[in-house]
Amino acid sequence: MDKFLATKADDNNNEVSTTTKPKKPLVSEVWTFFTRGKDGTARCNICSKSYRTSGNTSNLKDHLTRKHPEHKSSGISVPKITTYFESANTYEDGSKRKQSIDMAVAKMIATDVQPISIVENKGFINLLNILDPKYKVPSRYQIRDIYLKNMHLSMIAKLQDILSKIEYCAITTDGWTSKANTNYLTITCHFISDFELKSVVLSTMPLVNEHNHTGQNIADTLELALNEWHIFNKVVAIVTDNAPAMLNACKLLKKRNLGCFAHTLNLVVQDVLSSSLVKSALGKCKAIVTYFKSSATAYAKLRTAQGDNAYSLVQEVPTRWNSAFDMLKRFLQLKNEISSVLLNTPKSEQMLNADEINLLTDICELLKIFDDATHYVSGDTKVTISLIIPVACGLYLNLEKITTKLQTTEGLGVCELLKKGVETRLFQYETRTVTRIATMLDPRFKKEAFRSPFNAAEAMKALEDELTISPAIEIEPEEQLPREVDGLSLIGYVQEKCQTKIRNKRVDSILALRQYTEKPNSMQSLDPLTYWKTHFLEYPTLAEVGKRYLCIPASSTESERMFSKAGQIISDRRTCLKPKRVNMLLMLNKNQWLLD
C-alpha cells in the first residue's frame, strides 16, 4: 500500500509545482492514444504508426476510427474548462509514478484474472483516487493494448531466449471448449535449467480445424505451436490423457507419448465407483447431498444443527473422481447432523442405514490412498515422473495392508477390485522405457523402487543403452615421461596411439552406472535435481541423461488447470474474447515468474 501512498516532494516528474504556471493541456483526448514527437509527428500508442499532425488532430482521429474502432466508444472530445485545472493536478503520462501504478494495475489484472474493464468500475476508480488523488486511471484500451500487450511481448522475448538455450523439454497438452464453443488446445512446457525444474504455458490456441478433434488435427495444431517456439526437435515426450485422438497425434508427430498417471488413476477408481458393490450406497449418498443443495430450508437446518463454523456438503462432479471422495468425506463428517435434519423434515430423503454408512466409511478409507497419490504426482515444481513406479507399487502394498481396517464384506470386495485395477493399469508403467530410466535416475529410488527384479534389471539395460547414445569421449593424453633410453624411440608408435586412444563409451557408462547404483540411496526428502547438480562432475553423462528424462511430468494436470483459469477469463460477460487475447491473458497469469 505504501507504494500507492508514497510521493516524493522533490520529484519533478511526479509533482506539479504550485508556484509555476501549469502546462497547456492537450486540446483533444485523442492524445490519450498518441504520443507527441519533437518533429511535429504523433506516434500511435497502440500500433506505433506515426503521422504528421500539421497543427490538428483530424488524421489522428481518422486513424483511430479506421484502425482501432473499438476505441471510438471511449469518446474523443474537447475537454471542459474543469478538465484543464484537473489535469494540472495529475501525474504526467510519462512520469515514473504514473507508469509504475499503471503497470501495477495491469499486473493485478493478469495475476488475479480480473476483467480489464475493472479500470472503468466506479468503485475501483474511487479506491485508487483515495490512495493517490493525483493518479488518473488509464482506459481499458490503454491497459489492454499498451500495458498488457507490452508485458506479453516482453514475456515472449524472455521465454524465447530461455527456450533457445535448453536442449530438452517435455510438453503436456489437453483440449477444452470455451463458453463461446471455441475448441482450444493448451500446451505447457517443462524443462530443466541449471538443474531447476521450470514450467510455462506456451500456447492456448484454437485447433487448426475447429470442427473436429481427430488425431491429425491435434497433431497439426501441436506442430504449428512447437515450430513457432522452435522447440519441435527438443521435445522428448508429450504427456496427455489416454484419449485415442491424443495417442494418435503423438504417433503422427513421431513423439514419445506418456499417458497421464493421474488420469490412469482416475480410470482405476471410476471402474470401482460404477461397480454393483457400491452403486446403491453411493447413489443414496448423492441423492441426499442433492436434496440439501436444492432445498434452502433443509440446508439452513443443517447449518443450524452444526452451530458455529458450519460446513457445506460437497456435490460430486462426474468427470472428477476425487470429487466423489470429497463428497463422501464431508458426508461422513456430518452424518449425525444430516440424520437429525432428515428425521425431522417431512418428505425428505431417507438416511442411510448403519451397514451403508460402514460401507461408505470403507470406500472413503480406500479412496484416500488414491487421493494422496494423485496429489503426490501432480506438482509442477518438483520431479514427478520418477514417482510413478514407486507410487504404483506403494498403492498396491497399502491396499494389501488396509484390509484389517475394513468393516464390511463389500469393502473388502472393493479393495480387491482396486488391486486388480492397479495390476492391470498401473504396473504397466514398470515396463515403459521412459518411466524405467527416470526411476533409475532418481537417487532416492534406483533399482529398489521396482516391484519386479526382472523389470529392475531391464531398467539397468535401458539406461546403459541410453548412456551409449552420446558420442565417444576422447581422453586427454597424460604428460609424457622423459625418455631415458634412446632405443625407446623404436616403439614410440605405441605412445602415439595412446595419445589418441578413445575409451570404450559403453564400458565407461557401465562403470559409472554401477558406481552410482551401488551407492546408498538418498533420503526421500532430497530433490533429485539437487543431487545431480552436486554430482555433475562425478557423473556428467548420467546427469545429462537426467536432464533429458526428469523434466517429463507424470501427469497432464498442468494443462487441465488452465481450464479453470480460462473459465474465469472467458466468463459469461466476456464470451467474445478473441483467441489471441485468451492466449495472452493465460500466459500472463501462469508465467508470472518470467516478469519478476
Walk me through what this model shows.
The longest helix is centred in the N-terminal third of the chain and has 26 residues. A hairpin with a 5-residue loop joins strand 4 and strand 5. It is built from 24 helices and eight strands. The N terminus is likely disordered. Strands 6-5-4-7-8 form a five-stranded mixed sheet, with helices on both faces. It starts with a helix and ends in a 6-residue tail after the last helix. The protein has three domains: 149 residues, 2-Layer Sandwich (Nucleotidyltransferase, domain 5); 167 residues, no CATH class; 102 residues, no CATH class. The protein has 596 residues and is α/β, with parallel strands linked by helices.
Tell me the major beta sheet. 5 strands, mixed
Query: Helix proportion of residues, in percent?
Result: 40-55%
**Alpha-carbon distance between the two ends:** 19 Å
Count of distinct structural domains: 3
DSSP strand count: 8
Low-confidence stretches are 1-26, 75-79, 81-85, 471-478
General shape: flat
Task: Tell me the layout of helices and strands.
Layout: H1 2-5, E1 34-36, E2 41-44, E3 50-52, H2 58-67, H3 81-87, H4 96-111, H5 122-131, H6 140-165, E4 169-177, E5 183-193, E6 196-206, H7 215-228, E7 235-240, H8 244-253, E8 257-259, H9 261-273, H10 276-294, H11 296-306, H12 321-333, H13 335-343, H14 354-376, H15 388-401, H16 409-426, H17 433-440, H18 453-467, H19 492-499, H20 505-518, H21 528-534, H22 540-549, H23 557-569, H24 579-590
Parallel strand pairs: 4-7, 7-8
Antiparallel strand pairs: 1-2, 2-3, 4-5, 5-6
